[in-house]
Specification:
Layout lengths: L2 E2 L2 E2 L5 E7 L6 E8 L10 E5 L10 H6 L5 H17 L11 H14 L2 E3 L5 E3 L12 E6 L6 E2 L19 E2 L17 E8 L4 E9 L26 E4 L5 E5 L6 E6 L4 E7 L17 E8 L5 E9 L7 E5 L4 E6 L9 E6 L13 E4 L10 E2 L2 E2 L10 E3 L2 E6 L2 E5 L8 E3 L7 E4 L2 E10 L3 E3 L8 E7 L3 E7 L4 E10 L4 E11 L4
Parallel strand pairs: 22-30
Antiparallel strand pairs: 1-2, 3-4, 4-5, 5-14, 6-12, 7-8, 8-11, 9-10, 11-12, 13-14, 15-16, 16-17, 17-18, 19-20, 20-21, 21-22, 23-24, 25-26, 26-27, 27-31, 28-30, 29-30, 32-33, 33-34, 34-35
Helix pairs in contact: 2-3
Length: 508
């Protein structure tokens, strides 16, 4: 919405502090604040150039290869360079395509394939398959190592070493620090590329990018005023940009910045809370924990920023998702714990307005949605949109929802066909009592239903798969998981399951 009560999106001034690092030329951090509303400068959005070209275009061929996404792609880029070096060596007279040279290159790649490692609580796995699919054999994770606590075992009593002097047990991060050699690499923040060995169910690190230490801000927009800040709230959300080159890092679970999206044309979008130190005095009838600004930053034009829309959350904690839907528009989804029947969403165009004028400047609810307890069928087929799985993903501009044993698909072409009940009697209603002037409108969302493979099993996760398919999984027999692949059939105009099988998930 352009305004909620006296709060207008065009009047919000965004100030941002940009940090670059000489030691880390592939990293920049943005600290956005909303003047007169949220002036907490500790909020942070970190952007990492995974291509390691210092945010420039130094080698277009390497950019096109996306070597940072896959160990196989990395080897394919490195092999010609290795062959060139070996062929020009004074000690060798091998041709660039000789078997000896390939064997030497394979030995080098075996060494580079990395050492085995395991994920821990310090690793934050990047969301790789939210907007599209690509062939990969690797994970991308952010490693934020925590300092290990030192136990002073000498303080225990000899009579009862487990209980007598428990009050004197010291947990000191700096204890005996002067007596232990310091390894700076143990506390170094980094982005790691991990190769997944499916045969042995192991992870191997094959590349890393060092980062400066980024601080998690103390939240000013918590779930409730009584919520106590603690270390458990610290979680870094990691996701890829639309062109797959940049890694976006932000502290989603702190309640300040709910989601971030970087498009291929250099537009950075983020959703930020208006709740801050000064906001409460501006509009006493509002709970500013429910109000958020949808902001745009043009990275290619000196980081120019503006607020495009205002959003209201249906509940606390507030969860939003920015979903690209075609080249010039996106759908912003606001999750409810009760599923799609109480979700809110809006359609925002980068420039201009929507073809369907009724979608402009409105927060929308779903009239043809059902929650967990009230599925509606007709002739054995599900008719309504179901979303029980707390995630969304996109496939070629279409938005995919998961609920019960079904997948629901809102195609990019059908977004402009959403029917809005905008009359005062039929559709307009107050979102929540905490924000007295925020309204939403009921809609009918045209969706396609993927034919269920197993009506007795609930889908637990799903991702876009290959060029035009969806991969979902659900529980199988004890210790097993079942997957299914759906693809749109143009002749029947339905999403049909083309393959399904059971596999052993416990190996991982």
């Amino acid at each position: 919405m352009d305004a909620i009560g006296q709060i207008s999106a065009k009047n919000i001034v965004i100030e941002r502090r940009i940090e670059s690092y000489t030691k880390y030329p592939n990293v920049i951090t943005i600290h956005p604040t909303l003047a007169s509303y949220n002036d907490d400068d500790s909020n942070i959005i970190c952007i990492v150039d995974l291509a390691q070209q210092n945010f420039q275009i130094c080698n277009q061929e390497h950019l096109d290869s996306c070597w940072w996404l896959s160990f196989q792609s990395y080897c394919a880029v490195c092999r010609p360079m290795l062959n060139t070096c070996l062929s020009h060596s004074e000690k060798t007279e091998m041709d660039e395509e000789s078997e000896e040279m390939n064997e030497i290159a394979n030995l080098i790649f075996d060494y580079l394939s990395g050492s085995q490692m395991k994920l821990s609580g310090d690793h934050h796995v990047a969301e790789l398959f939210a907007d599209r699919y690509y062939e990969t054999d690797s994970l991308i994770v952010l490693n934020t190592p925590s300092p290990a606590a030192c136990f002073d075992f000498l303080s225990f009593s000899a009579d009862n070493p487990y209980a007598s002097n428990i009050d004197q047990l010291q947990l000191d991060e700096n204890h005996n620090k002067e007596n232990k050699p310091k390894n700076n690499n143990d506390e170094q923040y980094k982005v790691q590329m991990l190769r997944a060995d499916a045969k042995h169910s192991c992870l191997y690190q094959w590349h890393e990018i060092l980062l400066p230490k980024i601080a998690s801000p103390t939240s000013t927009s918590r779930e409730s005023p009584e919520c106590v800040y603690n270390d458990m709230l610290k979680h870094w959300e990691c996701k890829l940009s639309q062109d797959l080159r940049f890694l976006i890092i932000f502290p989603e679970k702190l309640g300040e910045i709910c989601d971030v999206s970087l498009t291929s044309n250099g537009k950075l979008y983020w959703i930020q809370s208006l709740n801050g130190s000064q906001s409460q005095s501006l509009e006493k009838s509002f709970d500013f924990r429910r109000i958020f600004a949808f902001n745009e930053c043009n990275v290619l034009k000196q980081f120019e920023c503006k607020t495009k829309k205002l959003l209201c959350s249906v509940e606390q904690p507030s969860r939003f998702k920015i979903m690209p839907c075609g080249e010039h528009k996106c759908v912003v989804w606001n999750f409810s714990i009760n599923g799609a029947s109480e979700d809110l969403f809006c359609v925002i165009h980068a420039e201009g307005t929507a073809k369907n004028g009724k979608l402009n400047n409105k927060l929308l609810a779903i009239n043809n949605a059902q929650n967990f307890n009230n599925y509606r069928f007709e002739d054995g087929n599900l008719q309504d949109l179901i979303r029980d799985v707390p995630k969304l993903c996109s496939l070629n501009g279409s938005i995919i929802f998961g609920g019960a044993c079904f997948l629901s698909i809102l195609s990019a072409d059908n977004v402009d066909k959403i029917a809005v009940y905008d009359s005062e009697e039929d559709g307009k209603r107050l979102i929540c009592n905490e924000v007295s002037r925020a309204f939403c409108y009921d809609t009918f969302v045209p969706i396609d239903i993927a034919t269920p493979q197993d009506n007795s099993k609930w889908i637990t996760d799903y991702v876009p798969f290959r060029g035009n398919s969806i991969l979902a999984r659900w529980l199988g027999t004890i210790g097993k998981t079942v997957y299914g692949v759906w693809q749109y059939n143009k002749h029947s105009k339905k999403w049909l399951c083309t393959k399904s099988d059971e596999y052993d998930e416990m190996k991982w």
